[in-house]
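This entry is listed below:
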Amino acid sequence: MADKKRDYYEVLGINKGASDSDIKKAYRSLAKKYHPDVNPGDKEAEVKFKEVNEAYEVLSDADKKARYDQYGHAGVDPNAGFGGGGFGGFGGFDGMDFDLGDIFGSFFGGGGGRSQGRRGSPGRDIFQRVTLTFDEAAFGCKKEIKYARVEKCDTCKGVGAKNSSDVKTCDKCGGTGQIKVTQRTMLGMMQTTQQCDKCRGKGKTVTNPCSNCKGTGYVRINKKIEVNIPAGIDNGQRLSVRGQGDESTSGMNAGDLVVEISVRNHSVFERDGSDLYCEVPITFAEATLGAELEIPTLEGNVKYTIPEGTQTGTTFTIKEKGVVNINTKRKGNLFFTVIIETPKNLSEKQKQLLREFAESCGESNFKNKQSFFEKIKKNRK
C-alpha cells in the first residue's frame, strides 16, 4: 500500500526544497552504494536500491514531483487512486467518469497529470575505481578501463526480433505503451494511466525473439576505453565520461562512466591539496654552520641553502614545486621540515672532541636552553 512507503525525500536523504542537481547527486551516491554489482547477494541492499530508484523516478520528474508534494504517494501511485479509499462516505459522484489527468491538470496549469506519451529512464551510470601512483595523479596519465556495459544488440539493432516482420503492435494498448484503469474514488469513477503490462510500455510485442538478446533488444558486453586522467587529480575525486554508461532501453540518453580515483601513498611526500610536505634529515654540523642541501621534488632534486644556527623542526618553502591545481592550473608549494639527526656509535676520540666543543660553547650559545631554565626559576619563586 502507498501509505506504508517511506517518504521519497527521506529515502534520498534530502530536504523537500532540494534542487534538481541535489536530487541527482543524492541519487547517484545511493545508487552506487546499494547497487547489486557492489552488493552481490545482499537482499537488503537490493530492496534499498529499488527504493532509491523509485524515489528518483518521481522526484526527477517535474510533474510527478509536483503531484507527490501535493498529495504524497497517492498522487503518483495509479493503484492508490486520487484521495485514496478512506473517503468512501463522500458519495454522490457514482456513475460519473473522470480522467484523473484532467483533474491534476486543473491544479498544475494544464495537462500536469495527463500522459505525455511513453517516458522512460536514462541509462544507468557505471562506477569504476582506478588506482594511480602518486606521480600519475600529480602529472596526469592515460588509463585503460575495462568494464561491462549494456548496449543495443548488434544482431537485431535493438528491435528484439529476428526479423522486422516479427514486431507487432501491442493489441492491449494499441501501441501507446499505456493503458487506462478506472477506479472508484471520493470524486466518483476516475481513470488513471499506467504502463501496459503486456508490452511493458514499449507499445510493441515480438513473436520471434532475436536469439542474441532473447528479445530484449539489448545485451551486456565487455568494453574497454582509454581515459585521460588530468594532472593534479586527488584521492577520492571522480571523473565522468559522458555517454559511456549503460544505454537506455527506452531511447533516452545513455548513462555515464564514473571513474573514482584512488591514489597510493608516496614514500617521501605527503599531499594537502596542491601543496607537498616532506621531512629532510640534516647533520648537526649542517644545522650549526648552515649548508647547501639537495631537496627532493617530484621533478628532481633542487639546491636550497639553509642559514647557520637552523633549529630542528624548522620549515622552509620552495615556491611552485607542489602539484598543479586541477581547476586553476597553478602549482602549489613544497614545504620541507629539517630534522637534525643525532650521530650514533661515536668513537672515543669523537666523543672527546664533542666534550671539548661543548665546554668551549658555554651557556651563551644555547639561548633556548638558558631561557627554558629561567622560566622554571621564575615559576618556582
Confidence is low (pLDDT under 50) at residues 80-118. Residues 270-342 form a domain with the HSP40/DNAj peptide-binding domain fold (CATH 2.60.260.20). The first strand starts at residue 97 and ends at 99. The chain is about 25% helix and 25% strand.
